[in-house]
Input
Amino acid sequence: MAKKKFVLRIDEDLYAAVEKWAADEFRSVNGQLEWIIFQKLKEAKRLKKKKAAPPEKKEGN
Output
């Protein structure tokens, strides 16, 4: 799957919170944002059924 690049301006405190959450789940900030967006799109039933595959979650030790 090709990925679209774009610039995101985000409040420093919001970024810090996402960064901490990402670290807690062993993801990059980019991966965490992608996962959050995917979850909200899925919840809102805005995804096409065939291409709706969630980003992989890495298991911790």
